[in-house]
Structure formats: C-alpha cells, structure tokens
Amino acid sequence: MTSMIDGQGRHIDYLRISVTDRCNFRCHYCMPEKQTFLPHNDLLDYSEIALLANRFIAHGIRKIRLTGGEPLVRRDIEVLLKELGGHVAAGRLDELTLTTNGSRLAQFAPILAASHFRRINVSLDSLNPETFRTITRGGDLAQVLEGIAAAAALGIGIKINMVALKGENETELLAMAEFCAAKGYDLSLIETMPLGEGVANRQDRYIGMDDFIAPLRERYALSPLAHRSSGPARYWNVAPLGLRLGLITPLSHNFCDDCNRLRLTTDGKIYMCLGSTMHVDFRKALREDGMAAVDTLLQKALRLKPARHDFERQLADPELRLSRHMNATGG
Ligand code: SAM
Ligand code: SF4
User: Does the C-beta of 72 come closer than 6 Å to ligand 2?
Assistant: First the structure.
C-alpha cells in the first residue's frame, strides 16, 4: 500500500463518493425547491465508481463514505454497497460508511449491515414533525425514526447530524441531545455553510456554534474528548448524559489544517475542497484514456488541494458564493 500526501503535506486517506445528486427531500439550506439534476448519461455507473474506488484504495485511501444527494434513492444501490463492502471484508478498507436522510433506511438496513457498514450518519434537524417537514420540504419524521431504529437494531452505530439553524431548531438542541443519549446515538452539530444559489435566508439562518450550544452548556457539563473520527468534528462528552457530541464548525473554528479528504462527484470529478471550485475530471480519463491517466490526475488533485476554504468571506458576500449545491459534491 502507498500513501497519499497533498501539496500542503497533509496525509489523504479518506474519499467521499457522491453516488447521486438527486434526493427525495429538499432541505432548504441544501437546495432550492426546484432543482435541476444531472442527466443520467453524465453519471458514473457502478462499475466506473468501483474501478475508481479500487484505484484510490490501491493508492492509500482507507475510508470511504457514500453520500449525495440521497445515496439510497439511486436505483440498484445495493450493487455498489456490496461491491465496496468486499474491501472491508478483505481488510483493504478500515471504514465504509454512509450519510443518509434516513427515509429509506428501514428497507436498506439489512443490506448495509451485510455490506460491513458499521456506523452511519443520519441527518435529523428536528424531532418536531412539523419543523422537520418544513426544513426538509416534505420529509416524514416517523419514517426516518423508523429507519434509524431498524439500523440500530442490526448493530449499526448511529450518528445524528443536526444542522444549526437560527430561529428554526435552536430551541431543540436539549431535546435532541437527550434523545440521542437515551438511544445511545452520537450527535454531531454542523454550522450551515454558504453553498449553492437560490437558497433562501442564508445569512438569516446562520448561527455560530458557540451560540447554538449555549443552552446545552447551561444545563450540562461539556468536556473535550481525545476521540477523533475520520471527519472534521471535534468531540465533547456531555455529562451526566454520557452523550458524545461532535461539533463541525467550518466557519467559526476552521479545521482545514488536518483535512484528509477528497470528494468524488456523481459525474466523476474530484473536488479537493468543499469550499472551492477547483477540481479535476476523472470521467474522460476513465472512459477514454486508461488507468495511467487516472493516476496522473490523482497526483494533480493532491498537488492542487487548497490550503483552506473561504466560507467566511462567501457568507458575507453573495458575489463570492459557489453556485454548486451541497447535493452535487456530497456532504
Ligand atoms: N442526503 C443525505 C443527508 O442529508 O444526510 C446525504 C447528503 S447531505 C448533502 C450531507 C450532509 O450535508 C447532511 O448532514 C446535510 O444536513 C448537510 N448539509 C447540506 N447542505 C448543507 C449546508 N449548506 N451547510 C451545512 N451542512 C449542509
Ligand atoms: Fe437531500 Fe440531504 Fe440535501 Fe436534505 S441535505 S436535500 S436530504 S441531499
């Protein structure tokens, strides 16, 4: 096995793969209500995704997360789940995981468990059915909770992702923390990032993490944990709940110095940073030029990976914002 070092000297071992830009929800912070999606011909098929994953694993990727859009809405996704699961079974991958909105989890939990997904992230911004429906523009909270319970019952570790939304779910943090602690789930809180055009109320909804967690600090004792996952969260123990709380703070506390990630989009581009338009296009290399060209592009991606994102200026100035939505690159 080789290892991958980027132009800033960072060790890259984590690949996020967006398997579709489509989704059955329309979370208002993620995409506009009327969203156009990529034509099917532009998408990598499962054998192409598997080929790229194999190559990246050979170069040193040890963790893969599937994301989207909603990964579980892509047709026949079980084909890819099982294929990638084979790498975990063979010891070539340390971790295979998924970020999902949970709406199809009840159906897919057994396939995920059989494909060696030991932990998954489920997005859940509210435990109030009406607020949940409003944020997701139509999502059914009961269906998501049923999916989460089905996955947990099969021994899959659950981490809940909650985006901090000013005036929308900021009064719900205590209830969410207590719910997660009671169920044995981890909880990660995410600051909303200024990605994508046509997303209403971007600045109005932004709340810094210190403000969002203030009610939790008033009630409970938070102490830092040494634990690190493969992602950017910093972890805290919430006593006496015994809750492991992850804070993802791209804006208020930048974490780019130890970024270990590359992102593969549905149409075969590698984005080196969520907050940058810079990318290299693997689809043509894969379809026309062969594996030597793929290897050359990977080296280029590593060389060009930016030192840090620029979300602070992008939040303040709409002209600097990236038109790409979160569902296109994957969260
Ligand atoms: N559909 C799946 C889901 O919602 O979990 C996977 C894709 S979604 C883009 C991945 C994560 O990104 C979710 O936890 C979502 O809440 C988060 N997300 C989407 N848009 C965001 C934004 N503008 N700022 C911060 N997080 C965002
Ligand atoms: Fe869909 Fe996930 Fe984006 Fe919500 S956050 S619209 S569930 S991709």
Answer: no
Q: Which ligand is nearest to the CA of 18?
A: 1
| Ligand 2 binding pocket includes 31 (Cβ within 6 Å) | yes
Residue 280 Cβ contacting ligand 1 at under 6 Å: no
pLDDT tens digits, one per residue of 278-295 = 789 999 999 999 999 999
d(CA 34, CA 328): 15
Q: Are 115 and 129 in contact (CB under 8 A)?
A: no
Question: Measured in whole angstroms, how far is the alpha carbon of residue 37 from the centre of its chain?
Answer: 19
Distance CA 13, CA 309 (A): 19
Confidence (pLDDT) at 276: 75
In this predicted structure, the answer to whether residue 176 has a pLDDT above a threshold of 90 is yes
Pick from 18, 23, 265 the residue to mutate for probing ligand 2's pocket: most ligand atoms within 8 Å of its CB: 23
Query: Quick check: 120 and 97 in contact, CB under 8 A?
Result: yes
Residue 327 Cβ < 6 Å to ligand 2: yes
Q: Is 246 in the pocket of ligand 2 (CB under 6 A)?
A: no
Q: Which of 83-92, 225-234, 288-297, 304-313 has the highest mean pLDDT?
A: 83-92
DSSP 242-272: TEEEEEE-TTTS--GGG--EEEE-TTSEEES
The DSSP letter of residue 288 is I
Helix (H) or strand (E) holding 235: strand 234-239
